[in-house]
Design a protein that fits this description.
By secondary structure, this protein is of the alpha+beta class. The chain has a single domain, classed as Trna Endonuclease, Chain: A, domain 1 (3-Layer(aba) Sandwich), CATH 3.40.1350.10. The chain is built from three helices and four strands, in the order αβββαβα. The protein has a four-stranded mixed β-sheet with strand order 1-2-3-4, with helices on one face.
């Protein structure tokens, strides 16, 4: 029997902020197998694990992140999302020159 998917308490506010910043967002926490919590996109696709406060990644989540060949964001707060967004904007405007 499959257990209910666990969702960190800050996931809703992080997802809402990403959407307000213009990203498309889909929640993936039900996928299981230590797959990251969300996929989100601007002109590129991104995946992110969401953790609340000082909660640590599980062993399986760490193994997934080490074996994944692309970047994975780890968001613990709205500030993490804003910092990621700022880096994306800076990168975008640098390539416009």
């Amino acid at each position: 029997m499959r257990r209910a998917a666990k969702v960190d308490t800050n996931q809703k506010e992080i997802v809402n902020l990403l959407r307000r910043l213009g990203y498309s967002v889909r929640c993936l926490h039900r996928v299981g197998d230590d797959f990251p919590d969300i996929i989100f996109a601007d002109d590129e696709n991104h995946i992110a694990e969401i953790k609340h406060g000082k909660k640590k990644l599980s062993e399986g989540q760490l193994e997934f992140q080490v074996s994944w060949k692309g970047p994975i964001q780890n968001f613990r707060s709205l500030d993490d999302v804003l910092a990621f967004h700022q880096k994306r904007r800076e990168r975008f405007y640098q390539t416009e020159d």
